[in-house]
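This entry is passed on directly below:
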Amino acid sequence: MKRDFLHITDFTVEEIHEIFDKAKEVKARFKNREDYKPFKDHSLAMIFAKPSARTRISFETGFFRMGGHALYLSPADIEIGKREAVKDVARVISRYNDMIMARLFKHEHMLELAEYSSVPVVNGLTDKNHPCQVMADIFTILEHRGNLDDMKIVYVGDGNNIVYSWLSLAMRLPFHFVCACPENYKPDMDMVKKVNDAGVSTIEVLHDPKAAVKDADVVYTDVWASMGQKHEIEERMKHFKEFQINDDLMAAAGSNAYFMHCLPAERGKEVTDSVLEAKNSIIFDEAENRMHVQNAIMLKVAGK
């Protein structure tokens, strides 16, 4: 049966750990320059309705190094849901390619793409979630901590698609997750209740960032206005000015807290230069691991 990766909950706990093991293996093979070509003579169609440097580079490079060819389809090539129906795009592209990765605005387009595609679909981002990013995040934390026991992850920012994927992960792996945000920028509180009711993890939504980060293992942030929200930036800056990750906030977290950011960062806005460049900032390990974890995810859904 065809496997897709649209949400973190598409994988079981056991499969998530299998992804971590495979990512570690593939990363080591790449570092050793091994001749590793599980996707020889395979093609990956990459549909971008929403442009991204890291997503394109990591998927295209990773698939190429595993022996395959990755085809970049820009917003101008496929105006998905505009010039052509999503279900038509899905059925045409899956006749040509072995896998589809899509980075889209609308989550419902991702669901429709997967429904009508005859080949595996991997979610490279939607307005609702960003599962590959958070899988890479948690793998990076595992690398640095050596385990995932008794974790407190504090996300400082708005309740966006990154938060949704952290909440999805919290239904599979146990940890304490705090979203520190202004009152008007909370995540979906029905989703928060659903995760808490599942009893795997503990979720809190707080509005005092200094209180929120106390005893954090990881302090995480993202830009205050994502692509498609840039027209809101002046209004958002009024609400988020007390939520900047700076040296004082990291000191409140404690000396052992790692700093993470999914990038690109707007230096001097949501985070200061000094935090980004500090020794406990693991943002570039996190960025590199996008490729290795995505490779593992693609191998998993392809049954390799």
Observations:
- DSSP finds twelve helices and nine strands in the chain.
- The radius of gyration is 19 Å.
- The chain has two domains: 8-130+290-301, 133-286.
- The first strand starts at residue 43 and ends at 48.
